[in-house]
Write a structure and sequence with these properties.
Helix content: under 10%
Number of strands: 9
Order of helices and strands: EEEEEHEEEE
Largest sheet: 9 strands, antiparallel
Amino acid sequence: MSEFTRRDRMFKVWSFDVSHRHLILRSDPVAIDNTTTRVEIYFGHVEFMLLKPVCRGIHVRPAASAEFDDVARFAGLDSDARNWTWMLEGEGNSCVVSSKPSWREAPRPYAAPSLFSASQPWPPGPDLTFGSVESDAEDPNGSD
């Protein structure tokens, strides 16, 4: 199982595209936090989300069984959504049911395009780090 954590950052809902059902959460660098990079988390094929628009710190991880049961009851989800339910801990409980979340981090000015913009070169330069969060069912080795 893999997770993504940035406890010292302020994240906000940056964009949600209704027609393509994708969500981007973003944390820009700010002097008060002494941060120098932008962090973006991308969720594709969003089926359900329960989010605060701004949160301090984030920990994206697969939902535990009891957490999924609560979300499924509330959102009317089928049991097959279990492996696609992600908890976003921070200030308050938030969750997203989507494809596997991906993250990218790099030094970027505020007005620069999204780190997930199709206009950005791929593969990225050496200043960009990236990864994905996986559920237990996706991880063939059962490890982080």
